[in-house]
Specification:
This protein is an alpha/beta fold. It contains twelve helices and 17 strands. The radius of gyration is 23 Å and the shape is globular.
Length: 413
Protein backbone atom coordinates (compact mmCIF):
# COMPACT_ATOMS: atom_id res chain seq x y z
CA UNK A 1 0.00 0.00 0.00
CA UNK A 2 1.22 3.49 -0.84
CA UNK A 3 1.12 5.24 2.54
CA UNK A 4 1.53 8.69 1.05
CA UNK A 5 -1.95 8.94 -0.46
CA UNK A 6 -4.79 10.89 1.16
CA UNK A 7 -8.33 10.67 -0.20
CA UNK A 8 -11.08 13.15 0.66
CA UNK A 9 -14.81 12.63 0.21
CA UNK A 10 -17.31 15.49 0.04
CA UNK A 11 -20.91 14.24 0.15
CA UNK A 12 -23.43 16.81 -1.04
CA UNK A 13 -27.12 16.86 -1.84
CA UNK A 14 -26.56 16.71 -5.59
CA UNK A 15 -23.04 15.34 -6.01
CA UNK A 16 -20.40 13.05 -4.51
CA UNK A 17 -16.84 14.25 -4.94
CA UNK A 18 -13.72 12.23 -4.16
CA UNK A 19 -10.21 13.60 -4.62
CA UNK A 20 -6.79 12.17 -3.78
CA UNK A 21 -3.45 13.79 -3.09
CA UNK A 22 0.11 12.55 -2.75
CA UNK A 23 1.72 13.68 0.49
CA UNK A 24 5.49 14.01 0.47
CA UNK A 25 8.05 15.79 2.59
CA UNK A 26 7.92 18.61 0.04
CA UNK A 27 4.17 19.17 0.06
CA UNK A 28 0.90 17.88 -1.33
CA UNK A 29 0.29 17.11 -5.02
CA UNK A 30 -3.27 16.61 -6.27
CA UNK A 31 -3.52 13.29 -8.11
CA UNK A 32 -7.06 13.72 -9.41
CA UNK A 33 -10.71 13.51 -8.55
CA UNK A 34 -13.96 11.90 -9.59
CA UNK A 35 -17.53 13.19 -9.35
CA UNK A 36 -20.84 11.34 -9.23
CA UNK A 37 -24.22 12.95 -9.79
CA UNK A 38 -26.87 10.53 -8.46
CA UNK A 39 -30.03 10.38 -10.55
CA UNK A 40 -32.16 10.45 -7.41
CA UNK A 41 -31.81 12.35 -4.16
CA UNK A 42 -30.01 10.13 -1.66
CA UNK A 43 -28.78 12.87 0.68
CA UNK A 44 -31.05 15.65 1.94
CA UNK A 45 -29.69 18.59 3.94
CA UNK A 46 -26.68 16.62 5.09
CA UNK A 47 -28.63 13.47 6.05
CA UNK A 48 -28.49 10.15 4.22
CA UNK A 49 -32.00 9.14 3.14
CA UNK A 50 -31.14 6.03 1.10
CA UNK A 51 -28.17 4.06 2.46
CA UNK A 52 -28.25 1.33 -0.18
CA UNK A 53 -28.20 3.82 -3.06
CA UNK A 54 -25.45 5.87 -1.42
CA UNK A 55 -23.37 2.74 -0.87
CA UNK A 56 -23.76 1.74 -4.52
CA UNK A 57 -22.87 5.23 -5.75
CA UNK A 58 -19.80 5.33 -3.51
CA UNK A 59 -18.74 1.87 -4.67
CA UNK A 60 -18.71 3.01 -8.30
CA UNK A 61 -17.01 6.28 -7.37
CA UNK A 62 -14.15 4.57 -5.53
CA UNK A 63 -13.72 2.05 -8.33
CA UNK A 64 -12.95 5.01 -10.58
CA UNK A 65 -10.69 6.50 -7.92
CA UNK A 66 -8.78 3.21 -7.89
CA UNK A 67 -7.66 3.96 -11.44
CA UNK A 68 -6.24 7.29 -10.27
CA UNK A 69 -4.40 6.16 -7.14
CA UNK A 70 -3.58 2.71 -8.56
CA UNK A 71 -4.76 0.93 -5.42
CA UNK A 72 -7.91 0.42 -3.38
CA UNK A 73 -8.88 3.36 -1.19
CA UNK A 74 -8.92 2.15 2.43
CA UNK A 75 -9.40 5.35 4.42
CA UNK A 76 -10.86 8.77 3.74
CA UNK A 77 -11.32 12.23 5.18
CA UNK A 78 -14.93 13.44 5.06
CA UNK A 79 -16.85 16.69 5.45
CA UNK A 80 -20.14 17.16 7.30
CA UNK A 81 -22.80 19.85 7.25
CA UNK A 82 -26.55 20.10 7.01
CA UNK A 83 -27.67 22.18 9.96
CA UNK A 84 -26.42 19.85 12.69
CA UNK A 85 -22.81 21.14 12.77
CA UNK A 86 -21.99 24.15 14.90
CA UNK A 87 -19.11 25.84 16.67
CA UNK A 88 -19.42 27.51 20.05
CA UNK A 89 -16.93 29.35 22.24
CA UNK A 90 -16.18 27.96 25.71
CA UNK A 91 -13.91 29.44 28.36
CA UNK A 92 -12.31 27.56 31.27
CA UNK A 93 -9.97 28.54 34.09
CA UNK A 94 -7.83 26.40 36.40
CA UNK A 95 -5.51 27.13 39.30
CA UNK A 96 -1.86 26.14 39.03
CA UNK A 97 -0.76 24.25 42.14
CA UNK A 98 1.54 24.79 43.81
CA UNK A 99 1.02 28.43 42.94
CA UNK A 100 3.69 30.02 40.78
CA UNK A 101 5.15 26.88 39.25
CA UNK A 102 5.81 26.38 35.53
CA UNK A 103 2.94 25.46 33.22
CA UNK A 104 3.43 21.95 31.84
CA UNK A 105 1.95 19.85 29.06
CA UNK A 106 -0.05 18.02 31.74
CA UNK A 107 -1.76 21.31 32.68
CA UNK A 108 -2.74 21.94 29.05
CA UNK A 109 -4.19 18.43 28.78
CA UNK A 110 -6.08 18.81 32.07
CA UNK A 111 -7.64 22.04 30.83
CA UNK A 112 -8.54 20.35 27.54
CA UNK A 113 -10.29 17.53 29.40
CA UNK A 114 -12.18 20.04 31.55
CA UNK A 115 -13.40 21.88 28.45
CA UNK A 116 -14.49 18.57 26.89
CA UNK A 117 -16.51 17.76 30.00
CA UNK A 118 -18.20 21.19 29.86
CA UNK A 119 -19.05 20.79 26.16
CA UNK A 120 -20.53 17.33 26.70
CA UNK A 121 -22.51 18.50 29.72
CA UNK A 122 -23.87 21.60 27.95
CA UNK A 123 -24.68 19.95 24.64
CA UNK A 124 -27.76 17.92 24.00
CA UNK A 125 -27.76 14.14 23.80
CA UNK A 126 -26.79 12.62 20.49
CA UNK A 127 -23.93 14.97 19.63
CA UNK A 128 -20.19 14.45 19.44
CA UNK A 129 -17.15 16.70 19.61
CA UNK A 130 -15.38 16.98 16.26
CA UNK A 131 -12.68 19.51 17.15
CA UNK A 132 -11.57 21.72 20.02
CA UNK A 133 -9.69 24.70 18.62
CA UNK A 134 -7.89 26.84 21.24
CA UNK A 135 -8.32 30.54 20.46
CA UNK A 136 -6.45 32.23 23.31
CA UNK A 137 -4.64 31.36 26.54
CA UNK A 138 -4.54 33.73 29.52
CA UNK A 139 -1.86 33.51 32.21
CA UNK A 140 -2.75 35.25 35.50
CA UNK A 141 -5.47 37.22 33.63
CA UNK A 142 -2.88 39.00 31.52
CA UNK A 143 -2.78 39.65 27.76
CA UNK A 144 -3.72 36.56 25.73
CA UNK A 145 -1.37 34.35 23.74
CA UNK A 146 -2.26 32.05 20.85
CA UNK A 147 0.23 29.30 21.69
CA UNK A 148 0.05 27.16 24.81
CA UNK A 149 2.17 29.06 27.39
CA UNK A 150 4.40 26.13 28.33
CA UNK A 151 7.20 26.99 30.75
CA UNK A 152 5.66 30.22 32.03
CA UNK A 153 5.19 30.60 35.80
CA UNK A 154 1.58 31.14 36.81
CA UNK A 155 -1.08 31.13 39.46
CA UNK A 156 -3.97 30.68 37.02
CA UNK A 157 -4.31 29.39 33.47
CA UNK A 158 -7.35 30.13 31.30
CA UNK A 159 -8.26 29.09 27.76
CA UNK A 160 -10.91 30.13 25.24
CA UNK A 161 -11.84 27.35 22.82
CA UNK A 162 -14.01 27.02 19.71
CA UNK A 163 -15.76 23.68 20.26
CA UNK A 164 -17.12 22.21 17.02
CA UNK A 165 -19.81 19.58 17.55
CA UNK A 166 -22.14 17.59 15.30
CA UNK A 167 -25.05 15.19 15.57
CA UNK A 168 -23.90 11.57 15.88
CA UNK A 169 -26.51 9.80 13.75
CA UNK A 170 -25.90 11.55 10.39
CA UNK A 171 -22.18 10.85 10.71
CA UNK A 172 -22.77 7.22 11.69
CA UNK A 173 -24.93 6.71 8.60
CA UNK A 174 -22.15 7.94 6.31
CA UNK A 175 -19.56 5.85 8.12
CA UNK A 176 -21.79 2.77 7.84
CA UNK A 177 -22.06 3.18 4.06
CA UNK A 178 -18.28 3.43 3.81
CA UNK A 179 -17.74 0.49 6.15
CA UNK A 180 -19.76 -1.69 3.77
CA UNK A 181 -17.02 -0.91 1.23
CA UNK A 182 -14.21 -1.65 3.74
CA UNK A 183 -13.32 2.04 3.88
CA UNK A 184 -12.61 3.72 7.21
CA UNK A 185 -13.19 7.37 8.10
CA UNK A 186 -9.98 8.80 9.52
CA UNK A 187 -10.82 12.48 9.96
CA UNK A 188 -14.02 14.57 9.93
CA UNK A 189 -14.16 18.31 9.26
CA UNK A 190 -17.07 20.75 8.90
CA UNK A 191 -17.62 21.46 5.22
CA UNK A 192 -17.32 25.21 5.73
CA UNK A 193 -13.91 24.86 7.40
CA UNK A 194 -12.72 22.74 4.48
CA UNK A 195 -14.03 25.24 1.94
CA UNK A 196 -12.36 28.11 3.79
CA UNK A 197 -9.04 26.29 3.81
CA UNK A 198 -9.21 25.95 0.03
CA UNK A 199 -10.25 29.50 -0.88
CA UNK A 200 -8.79 31.88 1.74
CA UNK A 201 -5.25 33.23 1.68
CA UNK A 202 -3.26 33.88 4.82
CA UNK A 203 -3.88 37.64 4.73
CA UNK A 204 -7.65 37.11 4.64
CA UNK A 205 -7.44 34.73 7.60
CA UNK A 206 -5.50 37.34 9.54
CA UNK A 207 -7.73 40.31 8.65
CA UNK A 208 -10.90 38.31 9.19
CA UNK A 209 -13.21 36.82 6.58
CA UNK A 210 -16.60 35.18 6.24
CA UNK A 211 -16.77 32.14 3.96
CA UNK A 212 -20.23 31.11 2.75
CA UNK A 213 -20.34 27.67 1.15
CA UNK A 214 -23.57 27.55 -0.85
CA UNK A 215 -24.60 24.01 -1.70
CA UNK A 216 -27.77 22.64 -3.21
CA UNK A 217 -29.36 21.54 0.07
CA UNK A 218 -27.26 23.32 2.70
CA UNK A 219 -25.44 26.58 3.36
CA UNK A 220 -22.34 26.35 5.56
CA UNK A 221 -20.39 29.27 6.98
CA UNK A 222 -16.97 29.73 8.54
CA UNK A 223 -15.49 32.87 10.07
CA UNK A 224 -11.76 33.53 10.46
CA UNK A 225 -10.29 36.27 12.63
CA UNK A 226 -6.62 36.77 13.60
CA UNK A 227 -5.75 33.46 11.87
CA UNK A 228 -8.24 31.59 14.06
CA UNK A 229 -11.35 29.74 12.97
CA UNK A 230 -13.72 31.47 15.39
CA UNK A 231 -17.13 30.33 14.15
CA UNK A 232 -18.76 27.60 12.08
CA UNK A 233 -22.42 26.99 11.38
CA UNK A 234 -24.65 25.11 8.95
CA UNK A 235 -28.19 25.71 7.70
CA UNK A 236 -30.66 23.40 5.95
CA UNK A 237 -31.26 25.66 2.96
CA UNK A 238 -29.40 26.10 -0.32
CA UNK A 239 -29.59 26.61 -4.06
CA UNK A 240 -32.09 23.80 -4.45
CA UNK A 241 -34.65 25.89 -2.61
CA UNK A 242 -34.36 28.52 -5.38
CA UNK A 243 -35.19 25.79 -7.89
CA UNK A 244 -38.21 24.70 -5.82
CA UNK A 245 -39.50 28.28 -5.72
CA UNK A 246 -39.22 28.56 -9.50
CA UNK A 247 -41.02 25.25 -10.00
CA UNK A 248 -43.88 26.29 -7.74
CA UNK A 249 -44.31 29.92 -8.76
CA UNK A 250 -43.61 29.63 -12.49
CA UNK A 251 -44.85 26.03 -12.90
CA UNK A 252 -41.55 24.83 -14.33
CA UNK A 253 -40.21 21.25 -14.60
CA UNK A 254 -37.52 20.71 -11.95
CA UNK A 255 -34.60 20.15 -14.33
CA UNK A 256 -35.58 23.14 -16.46
CA UNK A 257 -35.92 25.42 -13.43
CA UNK A 258 -32.29 24.77 -12.50
CA UNK A 259 -31.14 25.38 -16.08
CA UNK A 260 -33.00 28.69 -16.33
CA UNK A 261 -31.67 29.80 -12.94
CA UNK A 262 -28.06 29.12 -13.91
CA UNK A 263 -28.23 30.67 -17.36
CA UNK A 264 -30.64 33.56 -16.97
CA UNK A 265 -31.47 34.18 -13.29
CA UNK A 266 -30.07 37.22 -11.48
CA UNK A 267 -30.07 37.53 -7.72
CA UNK A 268 -29.62 41.31 -7.74
CA UNK A 269 -32.97 42.14 -9.37
CA UNK A 270 -33.50 45.32 -7.33
CA UNK A 271 -30.26 46.82 -8.58
CA UNK A 272 -30.97 45.89 -12.20
CA UNK A 273 -34.49 47.30 -11.97
CA UNK A 274 -33.20 50.58 -10.51
CA UNK A 275 -30.74 50.80 -13.40
CA UNK A 276 -33.53 49.92 -15.86
CA UNK A 277 -31.28 47.24 -17.29
CA UNK A 278 -32.78 45.93 -20.56
CA UNK A 279 -31.71 42.37 -19.74
CA UNK A 280 -34.78 42.11 -17.51
CA UNK A 281 -37.06 42.43 -20.54
CA UNK A 282 -35.65 39.40 -22.33
CA UNK A 283 -38.15 36.59 -22.86
CA UNK A 284 -37.35 32.94 -22.17
CA UNK A 285 -39.05 29.86 -23.60
CA UNK A 286 -40.69 27.52 -21.08
CA UNK A 287 -41.15 23.90 -22.12
CA UNK A 288 -43.39 21.17 -20.73
CA UNK A 289 -41.83 17.98 -19.26
CA UNK A 290 -42.60 16.39 -22.66
CA UNK A 291 -40.45 19.01 -24.40
CA UNK A 292 -43.21 21.10 -26.00
CA UNK A 293 -43.04 24.88 -25.94
CA UNK A 294 -45.55 26.00 -23.34
CA UNK A 295 -45.15 29.74 -22.81
CA UNK A 296 -42.62 32.48 -22.16
CA UNK A 297 -41.36 34.19 -19.02
CA UNK A 298 -39.19 37.26 -18.71
CA UNK A 299 -35.80 37.46 -17.07
CA UNK A 300 -37.44 39.89 -14.64
CA UNK A 301 -40.04 37.30 -13.58
CA UNK A 302 -37.30 34.73 -13.07
CA UNK A 303 -34.91 37.07 -11.29
CA UNK A 304 -37.48 38.37 -8.80
CA UNK A 305 -37.87 34.85 -7.44
CA UNK A 306 -34.14 34.08 -7.51
CA UNK A 307 -33.39 37.35 -5.73
CA UNK A 308 -36.00 36.91 -3.01
CA UNK A 309 -34.79 33.45 -2.00
CA UNK A 310 -31.08 34.35 -2.20
CA UNK A 311 -31.70 37.47 -0.11
CA UNK A 312 -33.45 35.25 2.41
CA UNK A 313 -30.48 32.85 2.61
CA UNK A 314 -27.75 35.48 2.82
CA UNK A 315 -29.64 38.12 4.78
CA UNK A 316 -32.29 36.61 7.02
CA UNK A 317 -30.39 33.40 7.73
CA UNK A 318 -26.62 33.94 7.45
CA UNK A 319 -26.38 37.61 8.40
CA UNK A 320 -28.90 37.38 11.22
CA UNK A 321 -27.01 34.43 12.70
CA UNK A 322 -23.93 36.65 12.96
CA UNK A 323 -25.50 39.80 14.42
CA UNK A 324 -25.16 38.72 18.06
CA UNK A 325 -21.48 37.77 17.56
CA UNK A 326 -20.53 41.33 16.56
CA UNK A 327 -17.98 39.86 14.17
CA UNK A 328 -19.10 41.44 10.89
CA UNK A 329 -17.58 44.91 11.42
CA UNK A 330 -14.24 43.27 12.19
CA UNK A 331 -13.98 41.21 9.02
CA UNK A 332 -11.70 43.40 6.90
CA UNK A 333 -11.00 40.47 4.56
CA UNK A 334 -14.61 40.55 3.42
CA UNK A 335 -16.99 37.83 2.26
CA UNK A 336 -15.98 34.87 0.10
CA UNK A 337 -18.76 32.96 -1.65
CA UNK A 338 -18.07 29.41 -2.75
CA UNK A 339 -19.86 26.12 -3.39
CA UNK A 340 -21.91 24.99 -6.37
CA UNK A 341 -24.60 27.66 -5.92
CA UNK A 342 -22.12 30.55 -5.66
CA UNK A 343 -22.13 31.19 -9.41
CA UNK A 344 -25.50 32.90 -9.53
CA UNK A 345 -25.40 36.06 -11.59
CA UNK A 346 -25.11 39.17 -9.43
CA UNK A 347 -24.45 37.31 -6.19
CA UNK A 348 -21.28 39.30 -5.40
CA UNK A 349 -23.11 42.63 -5.59
CA UNK A 350 -25.97 41.24 -3.50
CA UNK A 351 -23.57 39.97 -0.83
CA UNK A 352 -21.82 43.33 -0.66
CA UNK A 353 -25.16 45.07 -0.13
CA UNK A 354 -26.29 42.64 2.57
CA UNK A 355 -23.08 42.44 4.59
CA UNK A 356 -21.62 45.89 3.87
CA UNK A 357 -18.28 44.23 3.08
CA UNK A 358 -16.27 43.56 -0.10
CA UNK A 359 -17.14 40.17 -1.59
CA UNK A 360 -15.68 37.79 -4.15
CA UNK A 361 -16.21 34.29 -5.55
CA UNK A 362 -13.84 31.76 -3.97
CA UNK A 363 -12.17 28.98 -5.96
CA UNK A 364 -9.53 26.52 -4.69
CA UNK A 365 -6.13 28.17 -4.65
CA UNK A 366 -3.54 26.79 -7.04
CA UNK A 367 -1.90 23.55 -5.92
CA UNK A 368 0.55 21.22 -7.71
CA UNK A 369 -1.44 18.85 -9.89
CA UNK A 370 -4.76 20.67 -9.49
CA UNK A 371 -6.61 20.34 -12.78
CA UNK A 372 -8.48 23.39 -14.03
CA UNK A 373 -11.71 21.40 -14.07
CA UNK A 374 -11.48 21.06 -10.27
CA UNK A 375 -10.53 24.70 -9.62
CA UNK A 376 -14.17 25.77 -9.34
CA UNK A 377 -16.37 26.78 -6.37
CA UNK A 378 -18.24 23.46 -6.44
CA UNK A 379 -15.10 21.54 -5.43
CA UNK A 380 -13.72 23.89 -2.77
CA UNK A 381 -14.74 21.73 0.21
CA UNK A 382 -13.22 18.56 -1.26
CA UNK A 383 -9.89 20.22 -2.05
CA UNK A 384 -9.89 21.88 1.37
CA UNK A 385 -10.34 18.50 3.05
CA UNK A 386 -7.02 17.37 1.57
CA UNK A 387 -5.29 20.52 2.84
CA UNK A 388 -6.70 20.10 6.36
CA UNK A 389 -5.70 16.43 6.40
CA UNK A 390 -2.18 17.38 5.34
CA UNK A 391 -1.92 19.86 8.21
CA UNK A 392 -3.27 17.31 10.67
CA UNK A 393 -0.77 14.67 9.61
CA UNK A 394 2.16 17.06 9.95
CA UNK A 395 1.07 18.69 13.21
CA UNK A 396 2.41 16.40 15.92
CA UNK A 397 6.07 16.56 16.87
CA UNK A 398 8.51 14.97 17.43
CA UNK A 399 6.66 12.10 15.78
CA UNK A 400 7.15 12.44 12.04
CA UNK A 401 4.15 12.48 9.74
CA UNK A 402 5.42 9.20 8.26
CA UNK A 403 5.32 7.55 11.70
CA UNK A 404 1.90 9.00 12.47
CA UNK A 405 0.46 7.83 9.18
CA UNK A 406 1.89 4.35 9.70
CA UNK A 407 0.38 4.23 13.20
CA UNK A 408 -3.04 5.23 11.83
CA UNK A 409 -2.97 2.55 9.16
CA UNK A 410 -1.62 -0.15 11.49
CA UNK A 411 -4.64 0.20 13.77
CA UNK A 412 -6.79 -1.41 11.08
CA UNK A 413 -4.66 -4.48 10.48
Amino acid sequence: MNEQIITALDIGSSKLFAVSGLLTSGGLEILGGEVAYPSQEIVQSGRVVDMDSLTNELSELFERMKQIVEEKVEWVVISVGGGHVRGQLYQKEMKIEPAGREITEADIKELDQAIRADVIAADQTGRQILHLLPQQYFVDYQSPTRKAPLGLHAHTLEVRVNAITAAVNPIQDIMQCLKRLDIEVELIFPGAWAAAEAVLNEEEKKLGALVIDLGRGTTNIAVYRDNNLVLTNSFRVGGGHVDSDLCMLLHLPANYAEELKKNHGYCNYDTLAAEKNPVLNEELDVFTPAGRLNRKVTVADLSKIVTERTQDILGKIVRESLVSTRLLPRLSGGVVLTGGSARLKGIVRLAEQIFGLPARIGVPRSRPGLDRSLATPAFSAGIGLLLLAEKDLRREEPESWWERLWRRLSRRR
